[in-house]
Amino acid sequence: MLPRCAVRVCHVLVLVLCLSAAEDFDWTKNDRGSFYYGTFPAGFSWGAGSSAYQTEGAWDKDGKGLSIWDVFTHKKGKVQRNETGDSSCEGYYKIKDDISLMKELKLNHYRFSISWPRIIPTGIKSDHVNEKGIQYYDNLIDHLLESKITPIVTLYHWDLPQVLQEKYGGWQNISMVNHFNDFANLCFERFGNRVKYWITFNNPWSVAVEGYETGEHAPGLKLRGTGAYRAAHHMIKAHAKVWHTYDTQWRAKQKGLIGISLSGDWGEPVDIGNQKDIEAAERYVQFYLGWFATPVFHGDYPQVMKDFIGRKSGQQGLGTSRLPTFSSQEKSYIKGTCDFLGIGHFTTRYITQKNYPVGRSGSSYFTDRDLAELVDPRWPDPGSEWLYSVPWGFRRLLNFVKTQYGNPMIYVTENGVSEKMLCTELCDDWRIQYYKDYINEMLKAIKDGVNVRGYTAWSLLDKFEWDEGYSERFGLYYVDFRNKNKPRYPKASVQSTQLHMEMVTEIVVPTVCTLSILLSAIFLMFLLRRRN
Ligand code: NOJ
């Protein structure tokens, strides 16, 4: 998620912080906080998620076209150990098997994504629609519904058709807006009678920053200081167009909802008494979640992004800001294009103010923010390098969404933790702890009045983790990738708690205890009476 270089900087900063300022630093924020006993609202939806490229495999089967990830992973040196998603979990062939896992977990919903090149091989609808691809998603949706599991469907989870990248430069080009709209329209036409929850984009931040700024993700471009802003601009326009298409052409008939899924780490000021740190932390969140959420809810980029990128562009001698602008018609077209907001959240950072003068460091999304990210070395970090378990950050982020965007309907579309080591014993007790703590913070946020309607554990299965290959396992189910059949095994997080049960038993446990004490007392009284 965070570029590796940034993580490294983070670690160095942590060291420096420990050596130089350990005494001043407020470590008390490390406290887990107390457990809140309560219940989730009736109808709250529990689910798990996946995405097409990460799980389907069958990369060249049944008429599927190439995606930018197929091409990227086949180049040497792009992914750890040069792994690819060619076969991944073979999810394409395991619809029934995987749905029985979902039933084991008692899921209310399953979040998956549609591979654009699987149903439109070149990405351009007028070229060709691949009926075999359509058939696959038809089957998946039908089987889910038969099992009373609601499909939540993402249209774009990063696998752009390669032809669109080669012909037009992918999200650098405004023509993606219409091609994406055609693809979305086809999905509404063919699946919309059964799918009632649509997500246009998954985590466009990653697409923009890692795809077009750092180049760590496909298509691997390093257009520092401009590429990410341009890609984001076009994705926001594409999102708005697809929302309007659904709203005007399909909503009345299909009665579904359409939103966007944004990811955001929480940013906490290092020193809450220091105004500069407070502003830097707010900037961190605005440059992350706010970059996309503010246009979608308020029609334009966060003021702080316009100010900082505009000022730095001026200092570079550029005539206009590197952050593109929306016309006033575009602003009103984009504003309000969100029936629900998907939130993907995994971790938190401490933030402090740090100036990056233009001349010395050149321009980039990262230096535009004028801040430094820090982590508390005592935060548990069982999995990915960037993923520290900081449950209280989740509650703060959810409250931020409530206050900034008018308390929208929220579905948590991703939350979970990976594991570094090979979890051969399947004893992922840290994952149980992570889920328990994060879910409880979400419950506190609901008590605060945040309108959270559903929660999606990320992810159902271990799967291809982008540039990290198969080295980071997020699954509730372990997948043996060395075995051709890709068998799935439940980890302890499934076996011992059955995720769903864990979410509700916290209030049952004290009740059972209380009951047992009461029953014992009654029994004791009965014995004493008989004696007398
Ligand atoms: C967000 C991405 O949407 C998802 O595909 C990925 O697995 C998680 N981050 C974990 O890195």
Task: Explain the layout of strands and helices.
Layout: H1 4-21, E1 45-49, H2 52-55, H3 68-73, H4 95-104, E2 109-113, H5 116-119, H6 131-146, E3 150-156, H7 162-168, H8 176-191, E4 197-202, H9 204-212, H10 227-254, E5 257-263, E6 266-269, H11 275-298, H12 303-315, H13 328-334, E7 341-344, E8 348-353, H14 358-361, H15 365-368, E9 371-374, H16 391-404, E10 410-415, H17 429-447, E11 452-457, E12 477-479, E13 488-490, H18 492-495, H19 499-531
Parallel strand pairs: 1-2, 1-11, 2-3, 3-4, 4-5, 5-7, 6-8, 7-10, 10-11
Antiparallel strand pairs: 8-9, 12-13
Helix pairs in contact: 8-10, 9-10, 16-17
The protein binds 1-deoxynojirimycin.
1-deoxynojirimycin binds at residues 1, 51, 54, 202-203, 263, 344, 414, 465, 474.
Structural overview:
By secondary structure, the protein is an alpha/beta fold. The chain has a single domain, classed as TIM Barrel, CATH 3.20.20.80. Helix content is 45%, strand content 12%. It contains 19 helices and 13 strands. It has helices at residues 4-21, 52-55, 68-73, 95-104, 116-119, 131-146, 162-168, 176-191, 204-212, 227-254, 275-298, 303-315, 328-334, 358-361, 365-368, 391-404, 429-447, 492-495, 499-531; strands spanning 45-49, 109-113, 150-156, 197-202, 257-263, 266-269, 341-344, 348-353, 371-374, 410-415, 452-457, 477-479, 488-490. It has an eight-stranded parallel barrel, surrounded by six helices. Strands 6-8-9 form a three-stranded mixed sheet. Helix 9 packs antiparallel against helix 10 (227-254) and helix 16 packs parallel to helix 17 (429-447). The longest helix is centred in the C-terminal third of the chain and has 33 residues, at 499-531. It starts with a helix and ends with a helix. 50% of the residues are buried. Mean pLDDT is 90; it is low at 1-31 and 504-515. 1-deoxynojirimycin is lined by residues 1, 51, 54, 202-203, 263, 344, 414, 465, 474. GO terms for molecular function: beta-glucosidase activity; galactosylceramidase activity; glucosylceramidase activity. It comes from Myripristis murdjan.
